[in-house]
Write a structure and sequence with these properties.
Structural class: mainly alpha
Shape: elongated
Bound molecules: zinc ion
Oligomer: single chain
Strand content: 5-15%
Strand order of the largest sheet: 1-2-3
Radius of gyration: 44 Å
């Protein structure tokens, strides 16, 4: 100590620090830590080992960098706990709490501090996940898995991954996201069965039944679960033909029934569903699985509504009566009916359709189709008789006298838009390929760009 006070008070920082580094009395070092104005304060703190002195420095200093540095060096767990209790939620208290977590998680013997580690896992913002990893009691891990925030819960679930009964308990008692997390690693069939049959959360029952190999339990879920989504998942896992038949017949939800139908192989059962099921979607699914052409045509004839959900089915139709039934069905969209007309090859049925159908668009399509067939087959458009080569070359039927031209369309008197005048027009004629007869059909005209 010189004339001007102790060396640690020197304005020369290097000199002050050198002085501190020679000091050994910890209570003197505490004085330096609290009273020095330079970096010497931190040098002093670094030389104090006694936790009670470090905590005194922390409680007496309002300088954040000092109390943080002091608390970080405390090693006495019980003293630090008492400090936390006094400081509560102040910044200093939270800082002490983080130091306490670090001490407990990283330094302490976990066997001695299970209760503290559990508190950290459940409530602390500092290292809860690492604290959960150090828990050993099954009941503590289960509680943390159910109640803690994400990190700690995840760690607890991971630690319990080899304990199916514990995972099952977590699934039953947690909210949905947590429960599904616990389910992820569960493979035990008994526990999966328990969840699939009894968990209040439908998303968990669904996830469980998808992994369940016990046919009887899966069947029970498929038949009895209150959620259609769960029954659907179960139906997708069932292989037993009799069970699939029961679901296809009984389930109140059409999508569940369709899921069962999609797995049925029995052709006579599929035939029955396709021809008699009142639900068009179920009948459609059944028809899609019919491999026999005659059975398929029979289903289409008796239940034309099956094309409502899949027009592609029309491409499979071979039976004229079936196509006729589709074209005549007023419950179907005109689009489907016209597709059926375009596939028709039976000339007499087309004539019958034109006479009996009340839907204008469909009749028009039938007329067009009829003309195509007449041209292809050389038939009289009025009486339908096959014309002889001589009659054909004269474009007239010898039996009924009707004209039988082979018309093509032709554009004549075309006026195109010019730069000066944007008016355009086109006359459309039809011209017989054989005799050259011309008939005016329509005129298109307008101003602006001519749209082809
Ligand atoms: Zn004729
Ligand atoms: Zn002609």
């Amino acid at each position: 100590m010189g004339l001007f006070g102790p060396a640690w008070k020197s304005g020369n920082v290097d000199k002050a620090i050198r002085a501190v580094e020679k000091m050994t009395d910890e209570s003197e070092l505490l004085t330096v830590a609290l009273e020095a104005t330079t970096q010497a304060r931190f040098a002093a703190l670094k030389r104090i080992q006694d936790s009670s002195l470090l905590l005194r420095a922390a409680s007496q200093s309002s300088d954040r960098s000092i109390y943080e540095a002091a608390l970080a060096r405390v090693t006495d767990i019980e003293a630090l706990k008492a400090f936390c209790a006094v400081e509560g939620d102040s910044h200093k208290g939270l800082c002490a709490d983080s130091c306490l977590s670090k001490l407990l998680v990283e330094k302490a013997d976990p066997a001695l501090y299970q209760a503290d580690l559990k508190r950290i896992a459940l409530k602390s913002a500092f290292l809860p996940g690492k604290a959960a990893q150090k828990l050993t009691a099954r009941s503590d891990l289960i509680e943390v898995a159910i109640k803690a925030k994400y990190d700690a819960a995840r760690a607890a679930i991971d630690k319990l991954s080899g304990d199916p009964a514990a995972l099952c308990e977590i699934v039953f008692k947690s909210e949905k996201t947590r429960a599904l997390q616990a389910l992820e690693s569960l493979r035990d069939q008994d526990q999966l069965e328990k969840i699939a049959l009894g968990c209040p959360e439908s998303a968990c029952r669904k996830a469980a039944v998808e992994r369940l190999n016990k046919e009887a339990a899966v069947a029970r879920v498929a038949l009895e679960d209150s959620s259609a989504e769960v029954r659907l998942a179960a139906a997708g896992c069932i292989a037993s033909p009799s069970m699939l038949a029961r679901i296809a017949a009984e389930d109140p939800d059409r999508y569940v029934r369709c899921a069962a139908i999609d797995r049925i192989e029995d052709q006579s059962l599929l035939n029955k569903i396709a021809t008699t099921d009142g639900d068009a979607l179920a009948a459609c699914h059944a028809a899609q699985r019919l491999t026999d052409q005659a059975a398929f045509d029979n289903a289409l004839r008796r239940n034309p509504g099956i094309v409502k959900n899949s027009e592609a089915l029309l491409g499979r139709a071979k039976d004229p009566q079936a196509l006729y039934a589709v074209a005549m069905d007023d419950q179907l969209f005109p689009r489907s009916r016209i597709l059926a007309v375009k596939a028709m090859e039976d000339y007499e049925l087309l004539r019958k359709l034109i006479k009996e159908c009340r839907k204008h668009d469909v009749v028009e399509a039938a007329r067009e189709r009829k003309e195509v067939l007449e041209k292809q087959r050389g038939l009289c458009p009025k009486c339908g008789r096959a014309l002889s080569p001589d009659e054909l070359s004269h474009c007239r039927c010898g039996a009924c006298g009707a004209e039988a031209h082979d018309f093509r369309f032709s554009e004549e008197n075309v006026v195109s838009a010019t730069e000066r005048d944007s008016y355009w027009s086109r006359d459309i004629y039809r011209v017989c390929r054989r005799c050259g007869k011309r008939e005016f059909v329509t005129k298109y005209e307008g101003w602006g760009t001519d749209v082809d």
